[in-house]
Every structure is written in structure tokens, then in C-alpha cells.
Amino acid sequence: MKKNKVGIIMGSSSDSEIMSAAAKVLDQFGVEHEFTVVSAHRSPEWMFEYAKSAESRGLKVIIAGAGGAAHLPGMMAALTVLPVIGVPIKSSNSIDGWDSLLSIVQMPNDVPVATVAVNGAHNAGILAIEMLAIHDKALKEKLIDLKKRNTEKVRQQNSSLNERPANLK
């Protein structure tokens, strides 16, 4: 039986295209996760149940995506001691995603939500992996490899330029 470590939740199924980027990253790192619609406004009882049972179900991190008023990440953070990563979503009824971003980052004291860029679900996945890697050597090694590959990509880009800074040749 699979043991999910990360809960990826969103306020509506219309957010799934954006939030699937987090799932893709977790899949690439071999991290078990669940992918669920949990609306702070349309299903508050389900939201409470989800948050209250998250830790006992084995979750270690919650990634919560929300557009518009974007209350889902903050409510999750209020209801659980698990780290919550907020993904502001530029939805059809948002103000270019700024309303969602501000709703998520401006949490009151003692209710933090780690927040990524608007539609930044990929980085939310990476951040969740970094949190899990604190106690997981294998994940930490995979992150180190990712950083090395990224560095090599940058070096390859520089090698294709005609002029490079003298101290980098």
C-alpha cells in the first residue's frame, strides 16, 4: 500500500493543470503523494477533516493551490502543524494572480504559509522535497544531483557564448 508523504490540494479541479506540475516533480523524485480538490469555501467540513487527518494519514507536507480569495493554504496552516506551501493561482476571476498571492503571503503571526510564485507549483514540489530531505538522505542526494545538473546546464550555456568573462574561462 502506498504511503503518501505530500498532500497536493486545490480549491477547484480547474486548478489541476497548474498543480499537476508539483505532482510531476514529486513523481520524478519518487515521492508518494495524493492529489485532491478541497475547497475552503464550498466544502469547509471536508477541508477541516482533511487538515485534521493529514498527519495521522502519514502526510509530512501539504501543497495548497488556490486562486481568487485563496483562503485554502492559510486555513490548512491554521488547522495543522504540518508545513504548508501555498501556490497562488492566476484564475479566471483573479486580478492576474496578485489577489491570490497577497492572500497567501499576508498571514497573521503564528500561521505561516511558505509561498511560491503565482502558478509556481513546480517550485512548490521542489520545496516539499527539500523539507522531506531534512530527514531523508536519498532525497537529499537527488537534490544535490539536481543542483549539479542545473550548474552544468548553465556552464554549457556559457560555453556557447563568444565572449566569456576572463575569470570564468
| Count of extended strands | 5
Quaternary state of this entry equals single chain
Which fold name is given in CATH as the topology of the largest domain? Rossmann fold
Q: State the end-to-end CA separation.
A: 52 Å
Q: What overall form do the CA principal axes indicate? A: globular
Output the number of helix runs: 6
Helix content: 40-55%
Order of helices and strands: EHEHEHEHEHH
Instruction: Classify the beta-strand content into a percent band.
Output: 5-15%
Main beta-sheet annotation: 5 strands, parallel
CATH architecture of the largest domain: 3-Layer(aba) Sandwich
Order of adjacent strands in the largest pleated sheet: 2-1-3-4-5
The CATH class label of the largest domain is Alpha Beta
Write down the overall mean pLDDT.
Answer: 93
What is the rounded Rg? 18 Å
Count of individual domains: 2
Low-confidence stretches: none
Structural class: alpha/beta
